[in-house]
């Protein structure tokens, strides 16, 4: 009996493993297991999404943040961070440019910037929806009250990304100051769901102090929470954080986990992240070949891309940029996939 292969068969059949089983699957992985998982994961995603890859235009709206997450380059106490905030007109300009390029989802991501009041954001969201009624708006703006999430949803936002970062409380407290808690993260995620958003959680692979058990807990959390989307990318150190000397997360493990997550929730929207494309040149292609089905090219104005530095070495002027969509289309075609121009909603029809 080969326990590893049996676990992969079980995951493929039941979409669930125990914590111990996830841990075993990660710690004992080998080439054979990786290939088998990848094959099951790509077969599964094809059932829901054929060979289609969804693209989202990522607009990095502000690097001003009131939080001090220890791993993050735009954390409030990084005095070397050159701060900026895009104006509404600039954001609408990015959407216009993105629309012409073929994007039908815009992701507004940024730090927890105090200027982003409900009123400011609702006005922006309704303007985007008015200009582009056939587009989805995704927000990734951190923790807010349920009332605030409700207002954003009512003004037209469709999706919200809020990574849980780690599903283990002790690990959470090693990555964040004490005013930020896993408990509140989970309250926010549940509130987002209740309000009606399509919700994304997620975590970094190889974040400082992360154990295999922690990753197993993340996978179990994803099973239980059943998000519509899940952002999983390698941790990459930033030179102006206390984790500057830590090593970056492993691309191979990240891809292995993408395959597992595809099998946990077959119709999930799963990005091959910019961080994965940063740690390896062909990281995003490898992510797609492991079961991911979303890519988020950068649509921010060129002048701010370097300033939105969550980690060192972020790719920002090459094929990951929205303006290079044609190159991305070619690189996806070369591996048997096709970039499509639609909103790319979750497929709940199967
Ligand atoms: N403020 C919002 C939030 O916290 O959800 C959105 C912006 S936040 C910078 C987006 C994500 O970047 C975080 O959820 C985190 O997982 C990721 N991130 C931050 N620092 C990182 C690093 N050093 N390496 C990899 N990913 C990082």
If you had to describe this structure to a student in words, what would you say it looks like?
The protein is of the alpha/beta class. The chain has a single domain, classed as TIM Barrel. 44% of the residues lie in helices and 12% in strands. The chain contains 14 helices and 9 strands. The strands form 2 sheets. A 6-stranded parallel sheet has the order 2-3-4-5-6-7. Strands 8-1-9 form a 3-stranded parallel sheet, covered by helices on one side. Helix 6 links the parallel strand 4 and strand 5. Helix 2 crosses helix 9 and helix 3 crosses helix 10. It is globular and about 60 Å long. 46% of the residues are buried. The mean pLDDT is 96. Bound molecules: S-adenosylmethionine. The site of S-adenosylmethionine has 19 residues, from loops.
Reconstruct the topology from this structure.
Layout lengths: L2 H12 L4 H9 L3 H19 L2 E4 L1 E6 L25 H14 L3 E6 L7 H14 L4 E5 L5 H9 L4 E3 L7 H7 L6 H14 L2 E8 L6 H14 L3 E6 L16 H14 L9 H6 L3 H7 L4 E2 L6 H4 L19 H10 L3 E3 L10
Parallel strand pairs: 1-8, 1-9, 2-3, 3-4, 4-5, 5-6, 6-7
Helix pairs in contact: 1-3, 2-9, 3-10, 4-5, 5-6, 6-8
